[in-house]
Amino acid sequence: MANFWAQANALLRKNLTYQRKRIWTNVRLVLIPLFLCLLLFLIQYVIDKGIEVANSASSKKCGSEDDVIGGDCPVPKPPLLPPMLQIPNPASRAVQASFFSHGDLPDKSCRKTGTCPVTILLTGNNNSFGKVLSGNMFGGSFAVNTSDVLPSLASNVLGSTFGAGINYYADQGINSEIYNIQSQCRPNSTWPFSFGQIHTVVKCVQGLSLWRNSSVEVNDELFKGNWRGNTEKMTNEISAAYDLLSTDRKNFDVTIWYNTTNSGDNSNERKRLVRVPRLINLVSNAYLKFLKGPGTRILFEFVKEVPKHATNYSPDLASLLGPLFFTWIILLLFPVILTTLVYEKQERLRIIMKMHGLGDGPYWLISYAYFLIVSMLYIISLVSFGSAIGLKFFRLNAYSIQYTFYFIFINLQIALAFLVSSLFSKVKTATVVAYLLVFGSGLLGNSLFEGMLESSSFPENGVLALELYPGFSLFRGLYEFSESAVRGNGMKWADFRECSMDKLFYIMSVEWFVILIVAYYIDQVSQSGKSHFYFLKNPFKKSSSLPSPSVQRQSSRNIRIDIEKTDVTQEREKVEQLRNEGKAGHAIVCDNMKKVYPGSDGNPSKTAVRGLYLDVVSGECFGMLGPNGAGKTSFINMMTGLLKPTSGTAFVQGLDICKDMNKVYTSMGVCPQHDLLWETLTGREHLLFYGRLKNIKGSALTQAVEESLKSVSLFDGGVADKPAGKYSGGMKRRLSVAISLIGNPKVVYMDEPSTGLDPASRKNLWTVIQRAKQNTAIILTTHSMEEAEFLCDRIGIFVDGGLQCIGNPKELKGRYGGSYVFTMTTASEHEESVERMVIRTSPNAKRVYHLAGTQKFEIPKQEVMIADLFLMVAKVKSKYTVFAWGLADTTLEDVFFKVATTAQPSLS
């Protein structure tokens, strides 16, 4: 029996051999990120060159106002700009309308003259105080000191119909019409105005402050006024509104409504800054005037942007596209791992390795280590090559953080692949689902999850909950790397907590551990056939052998004895005697094994095996014959661990298959009905792998492999070193038999081993099996009666889930075939005469077939001698023309046919 490390060594060597044969597939896998990074680099290069050409072709010089507005040139000393209110266009200002409940707005005729006022609404808890405050909002006539423009402008309330730009390095409102908002305006009041190199005209517009009784009324008017679907088919925009709340002489508490729709310039969607500072100053000055008199005010002279460097650099695509692009690249490993695991399940390679002694521990260790090594090479090549070609996404962020993050995630990804593989049995289905997860994770992360990360209103706990999905965990980490690279400083360990990467690492680490445990648990329950609570059992309890006699006797009560099947009854009694005596020396002991498949869709349950008792000793080949659907495959599947018995059990070398199947595998060989081989491994490599699993080492392993190859005629002509995928069907069958016999297992199950072989190869294979059974118990299923008679020491005919007879071929032929088969062909008109002569010779003779003069009779051996039959033939020939005749003893095929046909009606 091979120990843990011997099994791991065998699997590792096999995997290395297998991967060596598909080395270019692995090389291409590792080169994928290099190719994609190179593609990103080339796109970046083209963009950089395009920007460089555009800059060189431009004749503009930094310092002009256009460059300031464009934002490409450096601005070491930003300009001082006067603060202004955002006001509606004259045609959009609020006027009387049917949907307004108050009638204090101006008549809509003002729109024809362009004199509609700018309306501001006020509300609050103190009506009288609010109305006083509303009268202090707007000043008098426009007055500007040309020698000191900004301080004198601060005493005026200016407004613009143009929205603010994306920054305050320039203001388009100064280049357009500027409005001075006053309490009263004289008709056509305008003033010339110069600001730097800008010369324009300031127009007067009336400011109208209206009181409302509640914030509900204010909100209703603001909503209806800005709704383009109203009955007047136009907007009635109110510039702003104030809710003074509980403001009084000792408390200043204000809520401001402001408009960001910029109806004056809807084409420019990038105008994001809102002219709110002047709104705050306006209500603050009104409050100060109320408290201290009209001479008191806060001068709001200008607004000024911070200085900036030149911004005419090209964007770093790797940093901007990093979360989506690299999410896809790293997740591409998931389909590779998943399909490899599902392929082993689909082709049943995992179970055939398990049947030959490979434990779950070595399988998990080697498979996990292999996927981890490939994933690490993939990640190292990605980071190294990305850094080498100058991608800031990799260069700026600390490599220690990156590798730690990637290491945790690829472990999480491998564990997830093991878990998800339990859901699939077909590679094609798993592949489609895996790639949907890959691209879906990237797209959802980019379109949905990124918005949640950037939203201040989305709760942090919600983000952490979404990061429980590994695809979003990866996206979050890459997003933080990208943001750090875009800022130009990169992520360092000092920034680790600030961007919540510590929580992300905790989530992925815990999830990795939990998913790995769950995946292993599901594997043990589904693949190894253990109970759902197997981990609660005492690990130090010794494995049970045959059950105690008291339990045996109790379990054997009420078993019906069929007196007609004395051989089957004797087999049951022999098994019961072995149980009572507690003997465990026999190779295979089946104790009342049953298998019932539950019914579904209204169909009744199906009993595949009905209380099977069987004893097979070492050195014996037991043949199991039966028609299709008799239950042979279900029996073999229970014995090899693919199915668990519904009741009863079996003991292999004294070990219970229901409790100790993993130990049973170490002394078992299997030749399945369908060849389970690796297409790229040679016959020699297959046998080396399974030989190591049987704990054969060194020169003994080499010798055993060569002898196995020679015994099945796969040694000469270089056949042993050809990939199994290039073998013919017969060669694969012979290799499967050699695999089942290598290492001299104590028990071997062969399911139709000679199927598809030519007569010469079949005879040679029979010789191999007959030589191998000397120290081995073999259970063999076959449809070839010749094979059963040649190989089997005992034969059991299995019909409708139960044994109908057991014995060696001669006993069965003697018991169920105690007659001669006599055949004669004459003219059709002589059939009755021939039949009468046969009856006179043997009164109990039975005609079983007749057609066109040919008749077949079963003649009991005890009634006649062969000489009597020859004399009868001579008499017939003397009277009639005999075209052909024959006399044969009963064959095993006749016995099988007779037992099968007589058993099924009795069972039905």
TrEMBL record:
Keywords: ATP-binding, Membrane, Nucleotide-binding, Transmembrane, Transmembrane helix. It is found in: Membrane. One of its GO terms (cellular component) is endoplasmic reticulum. Its main location: membrane. GO terms for biological process: endosperm development. Residues 588-825 form the ABC transporter domain. The chain crosses the membrane at residues 29-47, 320-343, 363-391, 403-425, 432-449. It is a multi-pass membrane protein. One of its GO terms (molecular function) is ABC-type transporter activity. It holds the Pfam family ABCA12_C. PROSITE patterns: ABC_TRANSPORTER_1, ABC_TRANSPORTER_2. It comes from the Eukaryota. Belongs to the ABC transporter superfamily. ABCA family. CPR flippase (TC 3.A.1.211) subfamily. This is ABC transporter domain-containing protein. It comes from Arabis alpina (Alpine rock-cress).
